[in-house]
Amino acid sequence: MKTQNVSRTVLAAGVGAVLAATALVYVPEFLDQGPPAPPGPAERATIAAHAGAQASLPDLAALITDREKWLRAHPGDDASWAELGAAYTERGVRRGDPRDYPRAERALRRSLAERPAARGNLDAQLALGALAGARGDWKSAKEWGEKVRKADPKRWPAYPVLMDAYNGLGDYAAAQKAMETLEELHSGAAVRTRASQTFRDRGWREDADAAALDAAALAETDAEKAASLARLGDLAWERGEPEEALGRYGTALRLVPDHGPSLAGRARALTALGRTDEALRDWRAALARLPLPEYVLEAGELHESLGLDGDARALYERLRTGTWVRGEVALALLDADHGDPAAAVTRMRAEWARGHRSVRVADALGWALYRSGAPKEALEYAKRATDEGLRSALFSYHRGMIERAVEEYGPARRHLAEALRINPHFSPLHAGAAREAATALGDPPDELPRDARPAGPRPDVGNRPPGAMGVPPARAKPRAWGRVGTTDGAPSRA
Predict the structure, then answer these.
(1) In sequence order, which residues have a C-beta less than 8 Å from that of residue 133 and are 6 or more positions away?
(2) In tens digits, what is the pLDDT along the chain, a chain of 494 residues?
(3) CA 254 to CA 318: how far, in whole Å?
(4) Following DSSP, what letter does each residue of 65-116 receive, concatenated?
(5) 398 Ramachandran zone, left/alpha/beta (phi>0; psi -120 to 50)
(6) SS3 state of residue 143
């Protein structure tokens, strides 16, 4: 869940950038001649959007109410329709509530009806790109973002939308180029957030942490600061430092007590520290606040690891029967480890055919193939997931298990050890399975495999008999390492 959690936070930052582009200069309806009154909730949301910051959810709701009221009296205002659509999308992302997405699409289509794209309605087009990204339709998000970029290359909010789309399609070079352009055009917390994500995806952990610290320092609202601190917590968790992660999530929750990503992150860190009663409490709160499919799966796996099988089954059933947006990876991993691996393969092949070729999709497809009995084909996808740059304990674990199944024991040892070195607590179910598999494989044999030995006698030894001139007697041939059976279940995904 690590990957999914961070990417969800970053997507919210991208939608916020679109809201910044579409936000109007808010004019209070009851303006008097005296000193200006303090800004109200709707005005605060607009001010935050203009600054590229993240508004609080109550202020965002107030902005939505204000625009709805305005548009009932002024239905021809295309800019307000675009702003309303962008606000719906942002609220849907941050609450994990896809019911806002049809509302967003209706508002944005109405904006284009009032002022078509051919007449320069870039706000609505950009917001449609953000909406497509929120729905996981990366191809459409790319198309909308590139239309806006072509029309106005200096429109900075287009680049976060494009980065999400390129990452979802697995085009990391294009995402990197978009990041570089964004840095040339804009600055502030939103840009440093994007830089942190890019560094993380390339495996540059120190740079990712430094950029996220910059984002927290530059944040202009409590909501934005909490999101930056949650990202710092995710980075600490991913490198196996649950105590530090716990502190960062705790600081975020003091600013925004019901911050969903921080509640989920704190639950994960508490699990690693053995404080499972508190972790279960935080998972309940996180799922009530932000019911994302990856959170449901991870909470279910924690319950299963504690022997709470009834609760685990209830959570798995909730995931299977729910209506989810961007839930394909979580559903595939659920089927691969707790259901029907063949169905997981079918699901992820469909994602791959849609052009959704991110490392997350590659990893899930590889794992599903392995669990369905096709480890040789699985290895191709596992390599793609691990070779891109992101340092993920989950991905390394999956690759190591697949390599063990195809009897590539040296790489299997290396990747299982790497998973535990990256984060020894990466899963309540499968960190232990990784340790067991690594132990079963044992240490590498002392003698080189036959096909790796140099041809002919060593020049300093010649054909001397064993034991002569310090040449040791030949060692017994090392035992052939037997194939170790697979372990059911899947590691957690943060």
Answers:
(1) 11, 14, 15, 141, 161, 164, 165, 168
(2) 444 444 555 555 667 677 766 654 444 444 455 566 788 888 888 887 877 778 899 999 999 999 999 999 999 999 999 999 999 999 999 999 999 999 999 999 999 999 999 999 999 999 999 999 999 999 999 999 999 999 999 999 999 999 999 999 999 999 999 999 999 999 999 999 999 999 999 999 999 999 999 999 999 999 999 999 999 999 999 999 999 999 999 999 999 999 999 999 999 999 999 999 999 999 999 999 999 999 999 999 999 999 999 999 999 999 999 999 999 999 999 999 999 999 999 999 999 999 999 999 999 999 999 999 999 999 999 999 999 999 999 999 999 999 999 999 999 999 999 999 999 999 999 999 999 999 999 988 765 555 554 554 444 333 333 333 333 333 333 333 332 333 333 333 33
(3) 30
(4) HHHHHHHHH-TT-HHHHHHHHHHHHHHHHHHT-TTHHHHHHHHHHHHHHHS-
(5) alpha
(6) helix
307: left (phi over 0), alpha (psi -120 to 50) or beta: left
Task: Let me know the angle formed at the C-alpha of 287 by 293 and 307, rounded to the nearest 5 degrees.
Answer: 85
How many H-runs (helices) and E-runs (strands) does the chain carry? 24, 0
- Residue 175: both structure tokens together: 């995402």
How much is the pTM? 0.84
- Position 17, amino acid: A
Backbone angles phi, psi at 202, to 5 degrees: -90, 0
Q: What is the CA radius of gyration of the chain?
A: 26
List C-alpha distances in Å: 398 to 272, 356, 402, 405, 485.
20, 20, 6, 11, 14
End-to-end CA distance of the chain: 2
> What single string gives the DSSP state of each residue in 453-483?
SPSS--TTTTTPPTTGGGPPPPPPPPPPPPP
